[in-house]
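**User:**
My hope is that you can spare some time for a protein that puzzles me. This is the protein in question:
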Amino acid sequence: MKEYDFYIVPTPIGNLGDITQRAIDVLKSVDVIACEDIRVTQKLLNHFNIKTKCISYHKFNEKERINKFLEILQEGKKIALVSDAGTPLICDPGAVIVEELRKQGFKITALAGANAIITFLSQIPREDEQFTFVGFLPKTPAGIEKIVKKYKCSDMVFYESPNRIVKTLEIIQSLRPDCKVAIGRELTKVFEEVIVNNISNLVEYFKSGTVKGEIAGMIYRETACGDDFNPDDKIKILSEKNFKAKEISIILSALYGVNKNDVYKRVLEL
């Protein structure tokens, strides 16, 4: 089996049975485990009788830890990176150290495993495979409004905290009163709940009781978007107005919520 210097290891988002055998083997075999909260990770390690040393690695000390990890790797030792739950680097720390290790030529690999967004999307109806993941929504109403408007023509997937979900849904309702929304909470746990309904019903439902558990959600795209947006037509119009490829990609991304890089490539193809 090929060996690596640095392993990105997903951990369960709730049900401990979702950890893979490979993840357990890697966590036992490496010299150090870098984790967000040692207390949280230690519970997982204790459950599977893993004795590996842990070092804290979170968004507040990412840059400070780089030299420490480089020293460990240069000694020929191996490191595994985990987050509190799910897959590292997906709304969790890790990008800073991975970028530096790639520059330094260290061998990095990522294990397959638990991820809240994929777990959520795999059990709700969708028209096609396209969606836009925006991570955790902003905390301000203005920030939420900006993102909801930007991605109205895409199935917009997001994370939200239980204490903010009602307010967030009310903001969405004020912007798109007839939209359909899917909400998943406590995924993989005993009280898992996934609901697909119109926004007004969801607001009333979650206002009626205490909401617990981290939340994944999706706002379904506006139905009219598929009819009035043809990227090739828009690219042609802007090209005839002498806009450059980069400018076209920025404009269409801002107006229709499409991927800027995809538009840029399409401009060059036409």
Q: What stands out?
A: Strands lie at 6-8, 32-35, 53-56, 79-81, 108-110, 132-136, 156-160, 180-185, 193-198, 215-219. Residues 229-269 form one domain.
